[in-house]
Amino acid sequence: MAVLVTGGVGTEVLHGVTDFGGDIMAVRVLLLATAYLLIRRRPRLASYVVVTAGGAVVHHWIDPGVPSGPAVASVVAYGVLLLVFLPALAPRWRIPTTVVAASLAVGLEVLRWLLGGPPLVAVAVGWLLGLVWLAVTVAGYRWLAGEDLVAAVTTPEGRGQVDQGLRAAPNEQTLLPRPWRTATCLAAAWVVTFGLLVGVGLLITGPLAGSALVAADQAAVEWFVAHRDSRFDPVVAAGNRFGDANWSTAGALGAGVVTLALRRRLRPVVFLAAVMVGEITLFLASSGAVVRDRPAVPQLGEEIPPTASFPSGHLAAPACLYLAVALLVWNWSRGWPRWVAVLVAVLAPTGVGLSRLYWGVHHPLDLAGSLLLALCWVGACWWTIRPVTDPAVSGRTGPDPGGGQGGCGRGGCWSWKLSDSSLSMRTSSASPYCSAGPSPSGSPAGSGSTRPCSGAR
Asked: What is the DSSP letter of 86?
């Protein structure tokens, strides 16, 4: 029986919060942590994540009732994150991180119980089973791989070491040079974008309400409704799904993890996070300020609120996400990856927009408002955060914005840097260090100094 009163927006938000636990969190850990570890060339740890998190997901799918599947999945998901990635944190952050992870694993399942989830006894048994499963998999990994995941952070030797191969951004000295200035600029850009959206929306619902433009706006939706065909419904449903909150969140998380694993920099991830947080807040604020009815046509799909037609949140999210990713890929790559990213940034929002028109839930001008939101906000985040302008950690793809390029491969490490009038290049087939950068001993760059190579193990 639900302890909290059900119904209303607040309860829906609380149910959304519980998605950071349970099988959804376990699946995220399974996919994203595995991808991160494989990109960082840690296949044994990736296999541990697959077995451990995958086991929790399978248990949830079986759904025995007691123990609680979500409770098992929460404990295993956050336990795997701690066991695998805690050695990559500085020692002073390990205890606070452990406390936060344990609080989430317990608190989210208590919240689920309060919202009418599994009984508290089943939840407690689930926590216990999750801990047992973690202990079994840690012992199995120690026996098969010869590595003790627990000892890496509990022994005196392990407490004083940091796994540089797993660190998110081992050589990024400054995340944002002027964080308060950046935050102020983003806040100002948010206000300007919000004002622009509200101004356009009120213009459509006010002075232009009886104009030929708004009449054509309604006629376009009626045309799509008149040409509906049941054979197109599955395709349209797939297009709508690409714009919902779950898919957009998954896409943003995936893009952030892959970017972090490949580029070893946090600033691009901050850029993606700012884009998506700004998008959802701009959509909620502007749709609440502009009261525009949905098209007066039969609508497909689930029950949809009668207001909040301008702008379209389903279109704004993928438009912002894929535009941001395309900008990063365009600056970091050459050749066909650039055009693939651009093609996705064009086709994905186009498919979502056409699907919304086919369902009869938005006008074309609503979609135009979403594109306006995406262009203004992503552009503001790009020029304010500047995710590709700091000297990057050496990687295998893309130019170093600081003027150099470098990376590591099976044949060794290489790097080059273009100075005022010369091009210098250094290679090494044995050393796990790349040139052009501060060495571990602190020797200055450009004087034969070295720094750990991004692919060194």
From this structure: G
Q: Which residues pair with 408 in a beta bridge?
A: 413
For 140-171, the pLDDT digits (tens) are: 999 888 888 887 777 776 677 788 888 888 77
452 torsion bin: left (phi>0), alpha (psi -120 to 50), beta (else): beta
Cα–chain center distance at 448? 38
Rg (CA), the chain: 25
pLDDT tens, 372-410?
999 999 999 999 999 987 544 433 333 433 333 343 333
pLDDT value for 409? 35
pLDDT at 403: 35
**What pLDDT score does 272 carry?**
95
C-alpha–C-alpha distance, residues 414 and 425, integer Å: 7
| CA gap 137, 374 in Å, rounded | 45
Distances (CA, A) of 305 to 257, 280, 288, 454: 34, 17, 12, 50
Q: List, as one string, the DSSP characters of 312-323.
A: -HHHHHHHHHHH
Phi, psi of 40 (to 5 degrees): -85, 5
Residue 161: C-alpha distances to residues 87, 94, 437, 452, 453 (Å): 7, 12, 22, 15, 18
How far apart are the C-alpha atoms of 441 and 451, rounded to whole Å?
9
Contact 236, 224 (CB under 8 A): no
3-state secondary structure of 435: strand
Which helix or strand (DSSP H or E) is residue 365 part of? helix 364-385
The predicted pLDDT at position 280 comes to 92
Contact 19, 253 (CB under 8 A): no
Residue ranges for the chain with pLDDT beneath 50 = 1, 5, 391-457
User: For residues 116 and 377, what is the distance between their CA atoms, to the nearest angstrom?
Assistant: 39
8 φ/ψ sector (left φ>0, alpha ψ -120 to 50, else beta)? left
Give the integer Cα–Cα distance in Å for 454 and 329. Answer: 19
Q: How far is 349 from 443, CA to CA, in rounded Å?
A: 49
* Crossing angle for the helix pair 69-85 and 43-62, to the nearest 10 degrees: 170
